[in-house]
Amino acid sequence: MRTMQEECIWLQEWTGLNHVEAEIKQWIDEYNKHYLYSKLGYTPPARFEKHYYDTLLKST
Prior knowledge:
Layout: H1 2-9, H2 17-34, H3 45-59
C-alpha cells in the first residue's frame, strides 16, 4: 500500500525485524481509526466497517 510506504516504511531507519513489525502494526491501527478515506465518504475504515456490519445485522 503506497500510503503506508510513504508515511511509515520509507521514513524510518529500521533496527531490526521486530521494530519494523511493531511500527507497521501501530501505523495500521492509527490508519484504520483516524485516516479519512475519500472513497468511504471521508470516514475512517474502522468506523465505516462497523457501520456496514451494524446495518447488515439490522437488515436481517
